[in-house]
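#help-structures
NK: newbie question, is this the right format to request a structure? protein is ATP F0F1 synthase subunit I
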Amino acid sequence: MSAVLDRNRKLYHKAFIIELALILIVYALIGLLQPAFSFPFLLGALIGWLPQLVLVVYVFYLRANLQSEHKLKALYQGEGIKIVLTIILLLLVFINIDLTPLAFFAGYFGLILLNNLLPFVLQKHTESKINSLTK
């Protein structure tokens, strides 16, 4: 179980670095092409990124030493924290900031999609590298 958690921890660490780099690159490109859309995009992307980061830190770092029968409970608690944090951040943005909804939701849903696909793609890439080395 520990080896699986270590592998997933490294996978998510790499995924978050790539996601942050992509956020900043796309933010810079949008800033050059359509400056009015860059800040809403950044806010949406960060609201998609930060709660996922909190979930991974909670599950893989703060609750990593739990007994195996309590790990599922920690995962559900982390998901609850992620949902509540997402709702709070969305409310703060919608109440306090006038923004372009299209750019905001493009950043938000783009990051949600990236959060789900990037770890899978990285895992498949790593497995293919291992398979090619063992042949």
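mod (FA): yep, format's fine, and the tokens are attached above. The chain has one domain: 2-134.
NK: thank you!
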